[in-house]
Write a structure and sequence with these properties.
Elements lengths: L19 E6 L7 H14 L4 E5 L5 H5 L14 H5 L10 E4 L6 E8 L8 H4 L23 E5 L6 H7 L5 E8 L2 H21 L8 E8 L4 H18 L13 H8 L3 H4 L4 H12 L7
Parallel strand pairs: 1-5, 1-6, 2-4, 2-5, 6-7
Antiparallel strand pairs: 3-4
The structure holds adenosine-5'-diphosphate and magnesium ion (MG).
C-alpha cells in the first residue's frame, strides 16, 4: 500500500536489513538519556541512516523533542502504550519526527511516541506470561526496516527498562551519565541489573553488558572542575574505551533546544554540544550509511 503522496511520510519497507537496537539507560532520571537519544538519532538520520526512536518513558520528553508534545491528546496517534494494549501493531504507531510541534518532517527519523499511561505498564502486564518480553514480542514488525532503533527508557531499571533491554537478542546498552560521582555509582546498579537479567534470560540467549557510556553533561568550570574531572577519570578507568569521546559539555543550548521542541543537532548544528554529540555518534558508528 503505497498511496501516500509524500514520499518522506512513507515508513521504510522491511528490506531485511540489519537493525541495531540501542537502549538508553540509567537508574536515575535527569541523566541525559533523552537528550542523548534525540541528538544521536537526529545525527544518524542526517547521515542517511533510517532511524526509529521508541519512547518508553511516561514523561514523553523524547516525543516532545521530536515534535509531539502530548501524543495522548491526539486521537490519530497510537502510542507505545496503545500498542502494548493491543490497539495497534508497533509499525502502525510509527510517525515522522518533526522539527517543532506541527513543523516540517525530519527526513529518515521516525518516532513511536510515548504515553503518560506507560506508568501503568506494570498493571497492564500483571497477568502476562514472561512479561519482561513485552517489547520483544512487538519488535518483529519494525526490525529490518531501520538501520538503527533507539529506545529511550524511564529513569529506573524496572519492568519497562528490562523489556527494552531484552527487546532483541543483540541489544546495545548505552549508559548515559552526567559527570558526577553519584551517577557513576548508578552504573554499578545497572551492571547488577544486567547480571540479573542475564541469569534469568540465559535460555533466550540474552547476554547483556554495558556497550557504551556517554557523558552527557560535563562541566569544565574551574570552581567545580575537580570533582567532575575525578568522576570522569573514574568512569574512564572503569569502562575504558566504552566511554565515548568527547564528553558533552553543559550548555544552555540544550535546554533552549528542548524549549524550541527541536533536537539539538538540528536546532543549533554548530553549537559545542551538537559538535560533541557528532563525535559521540561517530564513535558509535552512527554517521555512515552503509
Ligand atoms: N549538555 C547539557 N547541558 C545543559 N543541560 C543539559 C545537557 N544535557 C541535558 N541537559 C538537561 O538536563 C535535563 C535532563 O536531561 P534528559 O536528557 O531529559 O535526562 P533523562 O532523559 O535521563 O531524564 C534536561 O532538562 C536537559 O535539558
Ligand atoms: Mg528522559
Amino acid at each position: 500500500m503505497s498511496t501516500t503522496p509524500d514520499a518522506s511520510l512513507q515508513i521504510p519497507e522491511n528490506t531485511g536489513r540489519e537493525t541495531r537496537v540501542i537502549v538508553a539507560v540509567n537508574e536515575s532520571g535527569g541523566s541525559v538519556k533523552t537528550t542523548t537519544v534525540s541528538a544521536l538519532a537526529a545525527i544518524a538520520a542526517e547521515a542517511g541512516l533510517q532511524v526509529l526512536a521508541i519512547e518508553a518513558d511516561s514523561q514523553r520528553d523524547l516525543s516532545h523533542i521530536l515534535g509531539y508534545d502530548d501524543p495522548d491528546a491526539d486521537d490519530n496517534i497510537a502510542t507505545l502504550y496503545d500498542v502494548v494494549d493491543g490497539l495497534a501493531a508497533l509499525d502502525e504507531a510509527i510517525i515522522p519526527a518533526r522539527r517543532g510541534e506541527g513543523g516540517p518532517v525530519i527526513p529518515n527519523l521516525w518516532l513511536v511516541p510515548g504515553s503518560r499511561k506507560l506508568k501503568n505498564l506494570e498493571d497492564l502486564l500483571a497477568t502476562a506470561t514472561l512479561r519482561e518480553m513485552w517489547l520483544n514480542r512487538l519488535m518483529p514488525s519494525v526490525v529490518g526496516r531501520f538501520d538503527v532503533i533507539f529506545i529511550d527508557c524511564p529513569g529506573d531499571l524496572k519492568l519497562t527498562t528490562k523489556g527494552a533491554l531484552v527487546s532483541s537478542k543483540e541489544v546495545e546498552v548505552m549508559a548515559c551519565v552526567k559527570s558526577q560521582l553519584k551517577e557513576a555509582r548508578a552504573l554499578t546498579e545497572l551492571e547488577a541489573t544486567l547480571d540479573d537479567i542475564n541469569g534469568a534470560f540465559a535460555p533466550f540467549g540474552v547476554k547483556l553488558e554495558v556497550d557504551w557510556v556517554v557523558i552527557g553533561e560535563s562541566v569544565s568550570d574551574k570552581s567545580q572542575g575537580k570533582v567532575y574531572e575525578d568522576a570522569e577519570a573514574q568512569l574512564r578507568e572503569a569502562y575504558g574505551n566504552l566511554v565515548l569521546t568527547p564528553s558533552v559539555r553543559r550548555s544552555t543550548k540544550v535546554p533552549e533546544a528542548y524549549s524550541a521542541q527541536v533536537a539539538l543537532p538540528i536546532y543549533a548544528p554548530r553549537s559545542e554540544p551538537a559538535v560533541q554529540y557528532r563525535g559521540v555518534a561517530e564513535g558509535m558508528g552512527l554517521t555512515q550509511a552503509s
